Amino acid sequence: MATSLPSHPIGVFDSGVGGLTVVRALMDRLPFENIVYFGDTARVPYGVKSTSTIEHFTLQIVDFLQRQNVKMLIIACNTMAAVAAEKVREISPLPVLDVIESGALCAVAESKTGGIGVIGTPTTINSNAYARAIHQMDPDCRVYSQACPLFVPLVEEGWLDHPVTRLTAQEYLKPVFVEQIDTLVLGCTHYPLLKPMLSTMTGNLKLVDSAIAIADQTAELLQQQGLANTQRGMPDYRYFVTDVPLNFRNVGERFLGRNLGAIEQVSLDRL
Amino acid sequence: MATSLPSHPIGVFDSGVGGLTVVRALMDRLPFENIVYFGDTARVPYGVKSTSTIEHFTLQIVDFLQRQNVKMLIIACNTMAAVAAEKVREISPLPVLDVIESGALCAVAESKTGGIGVIGTPTTINSNAYARAIHQMDPDCRVYSQACPLFVPLVEEGWLDHPVTRLTAQEYLKPVFVEQIDTLVLGCTHYPLLKPMLSTMTGNLKLVDSAIAIADQTAELLQQQGLANTQRGMPDYRYFVTDVPLNFRNVGERFLGRNLGAIEQVSLDRL
After folding, report:
1. Which of B106, B141, B148, B188 is catalytic?
2. Chain B partners within 8 Å of A164 (Cβ)
């Protein structure tokens, strides 16, 4: 593999469209960085698949992004981060950040009482990856986790502040609220779109948005490693998906908060 | 390919677990038939994927089932039936039934006023396949379709008669109820599990369950073609899935209403 250069793009990947919330945070925080995004839209969602299947798919994507000469990797999918982050760090010579480590770091820094709630997909929650990461950083934290399987379909339906979504959130969050927490980690890249609704329900709780957390850590990492792009032109954004991009564009522009431009489809056979 | 024999199994396939509602109806209606079920759990759901991807996956499954010596094929997935049924009939020498044709036939037979509502996943509804099938059978029918993207995740969450599900159903069905319909087709294999809740909301509407419709048509087809199994022993049921079977078993036994027995995992590379 060629040496990484500052002008090379950041590689961001996700099982589908959700990781665009991370891309959005990166664009805001690092407006001169080139970005290559990969969304595995033909095989989304990963949250219901097994560990070995997720690991297999993840390594295919990493291999593809390395062939695009990315200078670092960001695992923007909580499910892949929970299941396959270790494996990615093992096989890739590039710096790797993942949303779980970033979310955990941010939660530990933000929490004053050490009581931290985590919400995510069933696979993320069952993997216990957030609790493990948080306990590694601070063994005194108490972590309360809750799977919210309906949040992703509700966000993709666009019901961001709908009575159904509100009722679903009340049902899911009831057991979390009875615990003494002061911080709630949005452990899925779809959830930042629910932040306005959730913040009206959670009162004084601090909501940790791992998209923003990982953008901050990316800035720091690029500085430390001398990999920050010094060119000041318009950055180049490329989007690769494994299925026909129609639905990706419709939902994705809501996630990204701007136009997506060209989207390239990659056949699964090329992975 | 070897000639089909009456003792050969019926091949039923779906993108995941939903087609087990068809298997259940077959077991009840045809208790001596052997059945091979294929659920593509590593790539579920199909409802959000593109036409070409769905077609590609479908033909892989048909090929696999033909290698299991099935005597006929049942497309138990509405999305695959909507997108790929024609293609399957083109390439397979076996008799093929699909849930859309069966549901449409049953709806046309049941409706007295010719006003028929259809609910399903976005892909099924956008394909317009039910309306097309119904109009081919009776051009005078009026068809009103409504996509219900949240019903599948709600069923898989097990919220079969939950306030959230009820509120979601009210929202989705509102525009259908204002039309003059007397029949509502449950155009997704997950929806029969919502039948008890839906029937309390729909009053005098006839609910068409395509699982039951297709079981009736299977019985007829096997008789006509001399393919009904004459052996009277315990039938053999085999279940193939593409992902680790844990989740398939948990949700599947609810769909099937009985124990699943052995489940075999097929690697995607073997398709």
Report:
1. B188
2. 150, 164, 167-168, 171
ipTM over 0.90 threshold: no
Chain centroid offset of residue A230 CA = 26
Please work out, in degrees rounded to the nearest 5, the angle formed at the alpha carbon of residue B66 by the alpha carbons of B63 and B72: 120
The whole-number pLDDT of residue A1 equals 53
A10-98+213-270 and A101-210 in the same fold = yes
To probe the interface with A, which of B49, B54, B155 has the most A CB atoms within 10 Å? B49
Share of chain B above pLDDT 70, in %: 99
Task: Output phi, psi for B131, to 5 deg.
Answer: -60, -40
Q: Is A47 annotated as belonging to a binding site?
A: yes
Helix (H) or strand (E) holding A199: helix A195-201
pLDDT tens across B22-60, in order?
999 999 999 999 999 999 998 887 877 888 989 999 999
Which residue in the block uniquely carries the two structure tokens 């000041």?
A232
Among A41, A153, A171, select the one facing B150 at the smallest CB separation: A153
Interface of B with A (CB under 8 A): 41-45, 48-53, 149-150, 152-154, 156-157, 163-164, 167-168, 171, 243-244, 246-247
Is there a contact between A173 and A145 (Cβ–Cβ < 8 Å)? Answer: no
What are the angstrom distances between the C-alpha of B152 and each of A222, A245, B147? Answer: 42, 23, 11
Nearest-Cα distance to chain A for B237, in Å, is 24
Question: Could you tell me where the DSSP H helices lie in A68-194?
Answer: 78-91, 99-110, 122-127, 129-137, 151-157, 163-177
A15 belongs to an annotated ligand binding site: yes
| Dihedral pair phi/psi, residue A45, rounded to 5° | -90, 155
- The answer to whether A216 and A239 have CB atoms below 8 angstroms apart is no
Q: What is the average per-residue pLDDT within A135-164?
A: 95
Which residues in chain A have their CB less than 8 angstroms from residue B150's CB?
Answer: 150, 153-154, 157, 164
pLDDT in tens, A225-252: 999 999 999 999 999 999 888 888 988 9
Instruction: Please tell me whether A8 is known to bind a ligand.
Output: no
CATH of B10-98+213-270, one of 3.40.50.1860, 3.10.20.30, 3.90.1150.10, 2.60.40.10: 3.40.50.1860
User: What is the reported pLDDT for A165?
Assistant: 98
A243: chain B residues, CB-CB within 8 Å: 49-50, 53
How would DSSP label each residue in B196-227?
HHHHHHSTTPEEEEHHHHHHHHHHHHHHHTT-
A230 is known to lie in a ligand binding site: no
Choose the CATH number for B101-210 among 2.40.50.180, 3.40.50.1860, 3.30.1330.60, 3.10.25.10.
Answer: 3.40.50.1860
The per-type count for chain A, helices as H runs and strands as E runs, is: 11, 10
Q: Is B148 a catalytic residue?
A: no
- Considering only the beta carbons, identify the residue of B43, B149, B246 that sits closest to A43: B43
